Amino acid sequence: MVTSQHIRYAARVINRGGVVAYPTEGVFGLGCLPDNFEAVGRILTIKKREPGMGLVLIVSDIDQLSGWTDAALDGKSLRSTLDQPVTWIVPATSEVPWWIRGDHAGIAVRMTAHPVARALCREVDSPIVSTSANISGRPPARSVFVLRRVLGSLVDYIVPGECGPARGPSEIRDIETGRVLRPA
Fold first, then answer.
1. Is the model's pLDDT at 79 over the cut of 70?
2. What is the rounded CA–CA span in Å between residue 71 and residue 166?
3. Which of 36, 71, 74 is CA-nearest to residue 55?
4. Three state DSSP letters for the chain
């Protein structure tokens, strides 16, 4: 069972430049502060992922996207549900670092509905990186047991808890066109 102590500890780890794993709507995610180059680099190294792909940011509140996008975003359009999370590609400000955008003009954001991920974003009071907890090309972890076995020694803290009912990473859509870029 996840307690407020788990969330506070994970937030301290993130704020000190660490990398944590935490449950989301469909899989465990790896997270850190998106403006921390070293922490993001660790996540890319852990995953063996190319930086050009870009990374998803999760937020608990639309206000946490201030400075990340110039778009007049409507919180309702970003809201997701536990059973069908959607990540949106939105226009990025010029201040968004390349290690978040990758080779893209926009950034991927999701207003998370998962209670643990939401609480973590609130406690950190910032968007956090949210990329699936796996080595690129391999299945993402959906349980703490698998996560500990595959990546346990590579992250600074694992927030206990269960993933939501989605069966994998979120669907990705372009907010301007509504086009599905990655199905769920």
1. no
2. 28
3. 36
4. CCCHHHHHHHHHHHHCCCCEEEECCCCEEEECCCCCHHHHHHHHHHHCCCHHHCCEEEECCHHHHECCECCCCCHHHHECECCECEEEEEECCCCCCHHHHCCCCEEEEEECCCHHHHHHHHHHCCCEECEECCCCCCCCCCCHHHHHHHHHHHCCEECCCCCCCCCCCCEEEECCCCCEEECC
Q: Would strands 171-174 and 86-91 be described as parallel, antiparallel, or unpaired? A: parallel
List C-alpha distances in Å: 114 to 6, 14, 23, 53, 136: 15, 18, 8, 24, 23
Give the mean pLDDT of 130-157.
94
For the chain, the domains span: 4-182
Give dist(CA 166, CA 164) in Å, integer: 6
The stretch 89-114 carries a mean pLDDT of 94
Q: What is the CATH number of domain 4-182?
A: 3.90.870.10
Model pTM? 0.93
Question: Per-residue pLDDT for 82 more than 60?
Answer: no
Average pLDDT over residues 8-22: 98
